[in-house]
């Protein structure tokens, strides 16, 4: 571009120089003047072109800047994304406790079992009001009164014993107190007219309802706490026993077992003693018998000596021991004699 | 109740296992930890008992407070199904986590109010459900 313009300028200068030269020589040339005009026109065209060129350059510059800015922005965005990703990865995921996350499946049977288990601690027995006046509040109609009053449920429980349909039985009784129905049942059920004729006197109510004025708690009473496992635990500590791994039942069994073992051992010892006594007694008796025998033999020998010259028959010598046997009871005879003497 | 000093580190941090036929848990005075803790957490339902604990300064003991926090496993399955006094026991366990309540329950008036209101509510909720 520069070259082109330089050429245009040069041409204009040359044409101008030719013109001035011709003018200084006082021979103005028309051709030279036309050349100048032409050169000048070309110069203007070149300048216009330069202008366009400059504008384009400026535009290119601007676009370049814009590109750079966008590049920077892209880079920034990407780095921000990278940072964010890093942060996201770094964030420890919240772990919900299993209790909240997991579902504990249960069967209807389990639910009903639980309901039955807790009902004695959550639902007051019929007739128990805990001092709340049930007759004044919520129920709107006499029917409702009959259905919700504590006496009603009590009456249902005693009157409707024949079948599970307590509600139907109660409805019958409330509308038509049949003659066959128990007296207490009839008197307990508030009839629709509620005249008071069938109502028991106040002082008799406790007699038909053992739970009258009985308190109902939804928590274990102090007495129950005092008779529980924790109380036993404390009792063991008070007695100086370490409750860890100590089982009273096991201990009781162990003591019983020891007692039994001791008894068995005593029994065995007693039997052994008796056996020993028996053996000693037999031994003594045997020895006594031998002594007696020896004594008799000695006596006989002595007797034989006295009867000198007497000759024993051969058979008599063998019969001697047979005769000696009964003599072991000789002392008995002596005892008898003693007794006779007494 | 035991009055010797307690320490936080002395108690096991995991709830005891749910009993089954084959478990061979160590016994404390003839009862497993499960049984003892179940009984204790239910006894907490009795405001008079909690008042007694407060009067013995148990509720001011950080170790005991930590134990109360630990006992909250009874509010979740599968332990929940073993509680037979759910209404008062669970509410009291919740209240006992609050420091203000642990101080206030020392008052006999509050204790009495809790007992009487509880008795009243036990009768009235049933009536409301019927009407």
TrEMBL record, chain A:
A Pfam family in this protein?
Med4
List where this protein forms a coiled coil: none
Q: Which UniProt keywords apply?
A: Activator, Nucleus, Transcription, Transcription regulation
Write down the InterPro entries for this protein, in alphabetical order: Mediator_Med4
Q: Per the record, which residues fall in region Disordered?
A: 120-194, 240-342
Where is the major localization of this protein? nucleus
Biased composition range(s): Polar residues: 184-194
On whether Transmembrane helix is a keyword of this UniProt record, the answer is no
| UniProt feature, compositional bias: Basic and acidic residues | 241-294
Compositionally biased region (Gly residues): 158-170
The compartments listed are: Nucleus
Per the record, where are the segments of Acidic residues compositional bias? 332-342
Keyword Nucleus tagged: yes
For this protein, the parts annotated as crossing the membrane are none
Assembly notes: Component of the Mediator complex.
Free-text function comment from the UniProt entry: Component of the Mediator complex, a coactivator involved in the regulated transcription of nearly all RNA polymerase II-dependent genes. Mediator functions as a bridge to convey information from gene-specific regulatory proteins to the basal RNA polymerase II transcription machinery. Mediator is recruited to promoters by direct interactions with regulatory proteins and serves as a scaffold for the assembly of a functional preinitiation complex with RNA polymerase II and the general transcription factors.
Please state which protein family the record places this protein in.
Belongs to the Mediator complex subunit 4 family.
Which protein are we looking at? Mediator of RNA polymerase II transcription subunit 4
User: What's the encoding gene here?
Assistant: MED4
From TrEMBL, chain B:
Q: Does the keyword S-adenosyl-L-methionine apply?
A: no
The residues that cross the membrane are none
Tell me the keywords, alphabetical order.
Answer: Activator, Nucleus, Transcription, Transcription regulation
Q: Where is this region: Disordered?
A: 1-28
Q: Which domain of life is it from?
A: Eukaryota
Broad class of where this protein is predominantly found: nucleus
Q: Which InterPro entries match?
A: Med31_sf, Mediator_Med31
Compartment annotation: Nucleus
Return the PANTHER family for the record. Answer: MEDIATOR OF RNA POLYMERASE II TRANSCRIPTION SUBUNIT 31
Q: Can you tell me which family this protein belongs to?
A: Belongs to the Mediator complex subunit 31 family.
The UniProt subunit note reads as follows: Component of the Mediator complex.
Free-text function comment from the UniProt entry: Component of the Mediator complex, a coactivator involved in the regulated transcription of nearly all RNA polymerase II-dependent genes. Mediator functions as a bridge to convey information from gene-specific regulatory proteins to the basal RNA polymerase II transcription machinery. Mediator is recruited to promoters by direct interactions with regulatory proteins and serves as a scaffold for the assembly of a functional preinitiation complex with RNA polymerase II and the general transcription factors.
Protein name (record): Mediator of RNA polymerase II transcription subunit 31
Origin organism is Podospora bellae-mahoneyi
Which lineage do the record's taxonomy fields give for this organism? Eukaryota, Fungi, Dikarya, Ascomycota, Pezizomycotina
